[in-house]
Amino acid sequence: MGLQGKIADLGAIMQLAFVPADFDAAVRHWTGVMGVGPFFLIEGIHLEGMKYRGAPTEAVFDLALAYWGDMQIELIRPRDDHPSIYRGEYGATGNGLHHVCILVDDLAHARAVCEAEGAEVVIEGAFGTSEVIYVDAGGGPGTLVEILQQAKDGPDLFGMIKAAGVGWDGSEPLRRL
């Protein structure tokens, strides 16, 4: 049997995401040492209809996005102790990888592929007209995959962030959106 219908077949990884114990130190590291930036900060995010393991949750988090070439780097800061993948068993990963992200055109298909592979949906919700699920492919931290179906009608936020990193001179390393 081939790999058709496997999670990796849904799309290429476009993002590496981290939930650092010290968010500000992580921003300084990525911008100062690694030279990645600028990061764009989005504060107070709560996904519409957000569920953690099938139960509604009021979790709120901040995130900062930048690009290293074609790879998006995401830094996440949880704002509360509500159930989420940013606390508890999946919480802060120190400096390690928390999850990867892939973009899909059909989230229902992606969900079916994940279900067939035994990957559990641990978070789901919507951000505007974009829908997202996070699945645990069975191994705990480091095996989380975010699967995002981006809105087709909104501004190209990722494109704007990526363009800002081209030739970035190190100024304003953390910018609010």
From TrEMBL:
Keywords: Metal-binding
Domain of life: Bacteria
Any Pfam family matching the protein: Glyoxalase_4
Keyword Hydrolase found: no
Sequence ranges assigned to domain VOC in this UniProt record: 12-150
InterPro entries assigned to the protein according to its UniProt record, in alphabetical order: Glyas_Bleomycin-R_OHBP_Dase, MMCE/EMCE_epimerase, VOC_core
Name by which UniProt lists this protein: VOC domain-containing protein
Organism classification: Bacteria, Pseudomonadati, Pseudomonadota, Alphaproteobacteria, Sphingomonadales
